Amino acid sequence: MYNKFPNLFSPLKIGPLTLRNRIAGAPMGFSDTLLNGDFCKENIAMYQAFAQGGAALVTVGETTVDTYTGQAHDRTTPLDNRDILPSLLECSDAIKQHGAIASIELIHPGHWANPKFTKGPIVYSASAGIHHRYGQIYEAVEMNEQDIERAVEAFAQAAYMGRVGGFDMCMIHGAHGWLISQFLSAEENRRTDRFGGSLENRARFPLLIIERIRKRCGADFPIEFRFSGKVSTDSAEEIQESIDFAKMLDGKVDLIHVSVSSFAKKDTVPRMFPTMFLPHGVNTDISAAIKKHVKTPVVTVGRLGYPELMEEIIATGQADVIAMVRGLMADPQLPRKAKESRDNEIVPCLRCNTCMSETFVSLLPYASRAMKCAVNPTCGREFQFRLWDKPRCAHRVLIAGGGPAGMQAAIVAAERGHEVILCEKTAALGGALNMHSHILFKKDLLKFKQSLINRLYNQKVTVMLNTEVTPQLIQILKPDDLIAALGARARIANIAGCQFPHVRTIEEMSAASEHMGNRVVIIGGGMSGTEEGLDLAMKGHEVLVLEQEDEIAADANFRGREALMQEISKYDNFQAKTNLKALEITEKSIHAVDSKGDIHTFMADSVILAVGRIALNEEAEILRSYAPEFVTVGDCRKAGKIIDATHDGFNAAMNIY
């Protein structure tokens, strides 16, 4: 069979094992495991989905080697407790059933341990220090040689527990500011004994761990070592030290996994979990620099979701293995689709960080713990999805609206064997996704739209453009089910002067002329208005966002807002003023009032209204009585986000029996 990506789908030998391709599921942990750390059915089903979708290696993440001294949050899987073995065996077996190699990540957080969850009274690190974390101040104690020996033994015993639990190999987590990287860091490691000072001394701790795991688990149990090739600078000195450390690992481990960043350097975290503001393959330059100096296969990670890019990285020798997790969450079938030359059907990750925002329980006191994805409605529901009843018979399904909710519903209904007709009253599919087509940092959204369109036609859905669903059309087509996905319209603010030609709604921005003038005022500082403002600032405009509430982008998810605000901070031509209500727009200015009643005037060449959208629910309800079964989805039901649209469309289609 012809393969568009021959290098990506070439096998790779690691120790006694063979990877079937070069795509690895990067380590991912859950915050919704059972209270004792056992994996729940949903956790296991997600790992299994990655394996079933064609990933060669699937790594179970965030398993704790020593709960007495090193637990960052609750519900982590404790590898120092034998009672966890049945859960490990069930999980590793689910991965291996589908031909993937099962690996387990070994973690000790060091001074990132949360005193609330550690069983012991002391938090340890490479060096002593005061830390302000988890809403409290605490002191980390410098580990003595006895403590270091305990930690080395804990890693070895945890690896052995993983092996007994059915895993084929392990990953030592030495990156991102955890205990091992606290030893490796010249900044954090201030020791004066044989574990501090020179790189050779600072590397002694991880090398002892590797040696002990080899002794405990044997040469036929491969080890992957993950470290941050770059933490905070682009200096030649830092890169050279990473190369020198990789040389120390060379031949001692089976995979060298090159990540970046540290939780101790907040401004570097976006590269650890690359955001939409960073380029694809953002960290590959580091892995490429290291790979030149070692024989051990090198793994790269960081915004890698497009097969053509992955193929190029492997073909040009920048890395030997591509690791990802959010790309597999967005589409677990990514490897299989790429291998079968169906890469135009791959659902891309939007880097919106919806998946992470509800799982960082240490940072968000009311986090739901639920794993969700904006573009994959089955994410976190893989086990439930298997139990969904199959349709008793094929229906004729009519879908009114070709936005994300309508297209998602059409794809799923067609996959389930129904006859599907989708009508879109405009000349193009995409709906609300088209609103963002002009934004520089949201190009993945266009990829998502195109993947929906490709899947729509590949499922042989009948698509009728320039066709509005009316009672007359319904009577002609005689559907069994009607799904209304009409979308929403822009809300027009009750502000004097909205009729001026230099005033636009946010929906009109994708078709707006470039001649907007220099000074742009955006009324409404929700996520949409804020992102629009950032895009304009990037293009050189002087931007002012006016928001009635206390903060801008308050409706964004936690991690998404964090990245958005960090990016905004780079632009002096972006301003936001909160607690101001717009009163009047003139030909050259806008007047607003604050909570004290004082009037503020701002000059404006253009004004953008971003004050929300109104669901076209009344228009949809006109159609309700014309089909046996009727449902509204997406913005038509309630104006919301992409995740609401995709989940609504999926659920509506799955409920057609």
Characteristic key phrases:
657 residues, alpha/beta
Q: What does this 3D model show about the protein?
A:
- The protein has 21 helices and 29 strands.
- It has an 8-stranded parallel beta barrel with strand order 3-4-6-10-11-12-13-14, surrounded by 7 helices. It has a 5-stranded parallel sheet with strand order 17-16-15-18-29, covered by helices on one side. It has a 5-stranded parallel sheet with strand order 20-27-21-22-23, with helices on one face.
- Strand 3, helix 1 (41-52) and strand 4 form a beta-alpha-beta unit.
- Helix 15 packs parallel to helix 21.
- 53% of the residues are buried.
Quick recap of the structure?
The chain has 21 helices and 29 strands. It is α/β, with parallel strands linked by helices and 657 residues long.
> pLDDT below 50 for ≥5 consecutive residues: which ranges?
none
In round numbers, the mean pLDDT is 93
User: Taking strands numbered 1, 2, ... along the chain, how are they ordered across the largest sheet?
Assistant: 3-4-6-10-11-12-13-14
What is the overall shape? globular
* Biggest pleated-sheet summary: 8 strands, parallel, barrel
Category from helices, strands and their pairing: alpha/beta
Total DSSP helices:
21
Tell me the helix content: 25-40%
Radius of gyration equals 27 Å
Q: N- to C-terminal separation? A: 37 Å
Number of strands: 29
Approximately how much beta-strand content do the residues carry? 15-25%
